[in-house]
Records
---
Amino acid sequence: MSIASSAPAQARTMQQYYRLHAAIYDATRWTFLHGRRRVLEFLPKNKNQTLVEVGCGTGHNLRQLARLHPDWSLIGIDVSAEMLAKASRATASCSRRVQLFEKPYATADFRLQESVDIILFSYALTMFNPGWEAAIGQAYQDLKPGGHIAVVDFHDTPHSWFRRWMGYNHVRMDAHLLPLLEKHFTPETSMVQTAWGGLWRYCIFVGKKV
Ligand SMILES: C[S@@+](CC[C@H](N)C(=O)[O-])C[C@H]1O[C@@H](n2cnc3c(N)ncnc32)[C@H](O)[C@@H]1O
């Protein structure tokens, strides 16, 4: 189902961007989306958990999670039909445990049916412009008491030209995520790491809803 006409402007921008980029996403992004494997290592390892990945893209993380946790239920949400088509193929071998929804997160258009154990944002929140605060707030609502939010994303850069270039690609790099995450959730993991010799830094955060 197409959501192009009813989606908010941010979602429509993402749909247009990934209509072109979906084809080359997996072949190119592994070079700079650092920390995706690492954030999965910091997740709570309880049995039979339900995890939602908001902005699941091509299913890179969902495929890993399905392999690592055969008893978990996985939900992927994304606004891009092209990215979700790839996610559907990536998770085909475990499709009984993986549900995919083509919806913008944190809008009246989509609500989870019940609260969940873990919500993962992997290189998604810095593209929610506007909407990143609302998405963090919605994740708080969507988690069970004691549930966890996990985030891996760009943090900042000392180079204005790189910040501008990332801006053209709809990514905001203002070190803006961690303060709000640390305000709403009790941190269990919170780190900032350097990438590509200091060209930029990325953050990993796992926090608990209390
Ligand atoms: C950089 S990709 C990250 C994909 C994947 N999480 C990964 O780590 O490879 C960002 C994804 O977020 C999705 N996205 C952006 N805004 C969204 C929104 N409001 N609701 C749901 N998904 C969104 C985009 O369509 C895109 O697939």
---
Amino acid sequence: MPIVLTRVLAGRALYLRQLCAAATVALGVLASASHADPASQPKTPSLADPGPNLVLLGTAGGRTSWRGSQSAGISSALAVNGQVYLVDFGAGWLRRYFQAGLGAPPPGRGLESLRAAFITHMHADHIVDYPSLVLFGASDGLAERRQELKVFGPGPRGKLPPASGGKEGVSEIVAPEQPMPGSVAMTEALYRAFAADINDNILDSRKPNPHSRVDVMDIALPASLRVDPDRDPAPVMEPFEVYRDENVKVTATLVNHAPVFPAFAYRFDTAHGSVVFSGDTSPHANLIGLARGADILVHEVIDTAWVDALYPKPRNPAQEAKAHHLVHSHTAATEVGAVAEAAGVRTLVLSHLAPADNDPSRWESASKDFSGRVIVGRDLQWIPLATAVHTREQRSSSAAP
Ligand SMILES: [Zn+2]
Ligand SMILES: [Zn+2]
């Protein structure tokens, strides 16, 4: 496979200026990459560029309401040959999709170019705006697609996770008849929950049944794999293929986001480079194996000092449980560089920033132990696999979905 991205080994360039710029511009205002020579500035990226282009739609990890942060929830896209592949449906992804220019140009209506989507795991910050796809997708172009949109995601966990710190004081669970649904069951539950709207649109506006436009699949794990998610939700394994078409081959692996199971990382291989999305995970051999030699690794990151400030000691059992999950099921800024180095990737892109409104200097330790390039991700950032970084002008006048 041809590799078109030159390995950047000269220093540990952390592009904090980009983040500073993003932090000081309000939504709707042009934010442009500042590090590049104007003569070499790429033209405004668009779907017309065959790419591949990585497009960050939302970069916030967890809730998006951190002290007024403007970042949308976690969602990323890969644009290849005019087709779009989406990873996760965080808060505001659909608005960002159009703001990023991924909607088809007129007479297109928006999502015609969305070819396939991939859910990493069932935590709400990754799927909270998934309903936007099935509720508004038909109006936004899915009805015009010749092929169904493919959605791949985790299947059901199989059993409830154990109560952290014991059962004492734990609230009653919801939906005991199906307490840990996977992607297919979640989608069917959404259709039931929004049946009044969906059926109104089928009958009054002659919109198609969403089943005919969106084909959702629970990802089947390799048959040889035996997993007890309570003991080890990510046993060491080889990546396995999930999807393939003329533009991309997508492989996946289990990552450790205990007690979540399954939690996936995805790798997209194209004719002109490769991108890996970590999903939510602690540092893990499976992720390193999946990302081996990739051009870009988009990796989650958390500031553990922020966790300590959020949950100062002494902690009650609920605070201890939350802090434990944040520290042990995610990857600290001080750890992520070693992951990228072990995988031998060329560029590390930090996303799923926790917290999203962190001081830029708090991410500097991500370049520790990594000899490649580090980019602190921000919403609407286009990152061509072959060249530099560019942020598309936000088209506020046409942004509202
Ligand atoms: Zn998350
Ligand atoms: Zn998560």
